[in-house]
Design goal:
The protein is an alpha+beta fold. It is 52% helix and 17% strand. The protein has a six-stranded mixed beta barrel with strand order 3-4-9-6-8-7. Helix 1 packs across helix 14, helix 12 packs parallel to helix 16 and helix 14 packs antiparallel against helix 15. The longest helix is centred in the last third of the chain and has 44 residues. The relative contact order is 0.19.
Length: 455
Amino acid sequence: MKNYDLYELASRNLRESVLRNGLTTAGIAVGVASLVAMISLGVGLQALAGRHLSHSGLFDTVAVSTFRESRGEPPEGRRAESQTGEPRILDEDARQQILKLPNVIEAEPEIRFLAEVRYGDHPLVSSISGLAASARDNESFDKMQGGFFSGPAAREAILRKEFAQQLNESAPASVIGQNLVLRYAERQPLSEAKKEQGAGNSQRQNDDDYGFTVVRREETLRIIGIIDSEPFGGMRATSRSNVFIPNQLAEELNILQATDVPGALRTANSKRTYTTLMARVSNPSSVQAVEDAIRKMGFRPFSILDASQGLRRFFTVLDLFLGIFGSLALAVASLGIINTLVMAVLERRREIGILKAVGASDGDVEKLFFAEAGAMGFVGGILGIALGAAIGSAINVGTKIYLRNHDLPAETVWSAPPWLLAGAIEFAVLVSLASGVYPARKAARLDPVQALRYE
């Protein structure tokens, strides 16, 4: 039997029982729609989480610390790779080495300290953090009042909204453009102090080269902006501050930090050491290679990709179960296909007998029923995609309205990638063909003599 005759017969048989075949096709459409809607919801939620984490400036950043600063010792087997004897010191030399690594575009220290902030007659002790120039792209600054730093070392400050309310409770935004005075402790090497004093023997001078003294300083800063939320989603130590200044300015001011005393005890010079360096990578796909290179240098790297392994596993399991539950409706629809085709076999026994009598083989009869099952699956798959897309659009519209009613930004939580739509049609056709196996074989095994006697 030629393919053209096969398709013509299948189309005619489907048209003759429009209601029954239409209901079966509708069942397939509902099954495909539920499958597409559920899996697309999982994909959309995963994309939503990915967008927020990516825009938070966390996915392209590697935190670098020493093994001594980390909790516990390095795992066995990594000790020789990461350190020999004493752990490496995270100082300016190490920072320059990290900057030379491929795909590393920035390596900034995390600077956070306590200082007195004086605004008019209001002296307040608060935490201050440095922000790198790349923080401008963080989502916390998208809707800020005012603007970002004009330069990497500008004498400017950005305040948290809660802190601005402490400075001016009635009109927090009015502090933008005003000045505040920052009183802080400067870390000054003892060797510089000795030059001013001109005292001490040579042995004492060598000892002094390994220490530092503390000098009180003041710096006037101009308030240029106010933000509502913590930068980087509050996942960095520097995020939990009330006042933010450019990181390069914080380095130039040489501000005393809590880690300076332990650092001075560990190093045999007066160089500043860092607790953590934040290495920014040009592309999130290069994070793992940068981590491996930093680990070989003897430091402890950490990125949000390490912590997100569990999140990716969660979404994988979520997609799996959504797909299983969505497939249940399609499984029910497959029973309808079997029922429809079995009834067709019983009703068309005489037709099958005639086909076999004029030379149709068992394989031709099977192909005929497979063609009918595949056609119902294909049409049901297309209708299911359309129905699933309509359900998804309704979910997105309803979600946006709900979020806006709660003063939250609108989000897209349902997303159907092209591979899912194509896969849904293919899956519907495969399920339909599998459902047609039993009816097709039953029809092929009919005895033509007995079939012609039917009725």
